[in-house]
Amino acid sequence: MKIATFNVNGVNGRLPVLLRWLAEAAPDVVCLQELKAPDERFPIGAIEKAGYGAIWHGQKSWNGVAILCREADPIETRRGLPGDPDDAQSRYIEAAVNGILVGCLYLPNGNPAPGPKFDYKLAWFRRLTAYAAGLLDLKVPVLLAGDFNVMPTDLDVYNPARWQDDALFRPEVRSAFHALVGRGWTDALRALHPDERIYTFWDYFRNAWGRDAGLRIDHFLLSPALALQLAAADVDRAVRGWDKASDHAPAWIELAETGPKTGRR
Question: Which family does it belong to (predicted)?
C-alpha cells in the first residue's frame, strides 16, 4: 500500500498539479494539507473523476485537511483535534482506510516566535501528543501524516544556523516532536534514511528550489505494528519543479506485509 502526504498550498489553485501527480504516482491513500478552501469549494468532482473518494475539513482562505482513498471512500472517525472546544482552525481529520487508522494533520506554523502564534503552536502540539497517546492505546495500526512544521534535527534543514530562531526549528518545537515520537512512534522517512538529507519543502523566495535550500517538515509517524510493515519511503521532489507547483513536494511510504526495508523504489 502506498500512502502519501502533500501540502498542496491551495487545492483549487494547484488542482492541475494534484491531478497530474495522482495520475502519475497512483498512491492508494493521500493526506492533503492547506486546502485554503471552505467545505463547499473542495473539488470533489475532479477528485472522484480521478478515481478517489475523499473526506475533507475545509476553512475559507486558510488551513484545511483532507484524506483521499483510491477507489474507495475513507470512513471518517474524527474531525478536529480534541482538547480545545474553542479552536476553530481546520487542522486535523481522521479516517479508517484499508484497515489503518489515518490521521491527517497540519500543525501550526507558529511564527513569529515568541508570541501568541508560537504559544498556539506549542499548545496544539501538546493536544496532539495527548491524543496520539490514546491512539497507541488502541493497539491497532495507526498513521499520523502531514505537515508538522517542524525540522526535527540539523539534518532536516539546509542551513541550521539560519533557522535557529524560527518557530519551525526552535528547541521547544523540536523537543515536542521528539517527545511525541519517543512515546512509541516511528519517523518513517528518517527510519529508512538515517543519514541522508531529504527535503519536502522549498520556499518560493531566494531561489530556494534552484539552490536545493530545503526543509523536511512533512512527516509520517507510524505506530509499532505499522512500523513493521514499512518497506519504502521517499519524496517525489520533481513535483516541486512543475509549473505552478506547491512549495511542498509529496512524500510517500509503502507498506508491505513482509519483505526487506529499502529507502527508495
Answer: Belongs to the DNA repair enzymes AP/ExoA family.
Q: Is 106 a catalytic residue?
A: yes
User: Could you confirm whether 147 is annotated as catalytic?
Assistant: yes
Q: Which CATH class is domain 2-255?
A: alpha beta
Dihedral, CA atoms, 209, 144, 197, 207, nearest 10 degrees?
Answer: 10
User: Which listed residue (106, 166, 193, 199) is catalytic?
Assistant: 106
Given a cut of 60, is residue 257 above it in pLDDT? yes
Which grid cell sits at 73? 471512500
At residue 4, φ and ψ (nearest 5 deg) are -125, 160
Can you list the alpha helix ranges (DSSP code H) found in 39-115? 44-49
Instruction: Indicate which residue of 52, 57, 147, 234 is catalytic.
Output: 147
Q: Is 149 annotated as a binding residue?
A: yes
In terms of Cα–Cα distance, which of 62, 74, 68 is closest to 43? 68
Surface-to-core class of residue 77, CB atoms within 10 Å of its CB (0-12 exposed, 13-18 middle, 19+ buried):
middle
Q: Does 247 appear as a known binding residue?
A: yes
Give the residue extent of every domain in the chain: 2-255
Q: What is the pTM of this model?
A: 0.96
Residue 147, marked binder: yes
Query: Is 248 labeled as catalytic in the residue annotation?
Result: yes
CB atoms within 10 A of CB 50: 17
Backbone angles phi, psi at 213, to 5 degrees: -90, 80
Tell which residue, 139, 156, 152, 159, has the closest CA to residue 223: 139
pLDDT digits (tens, 9 = 90+) for 202-220: 999 999 999 999 999 999 9
- Please list the helix, strand and coil fractions of the chain in percent, rounded to the nearest 5, in that order: 30, 25, 45
- Is 35 within 8 Å of 11 (Cβ atoms)? yes
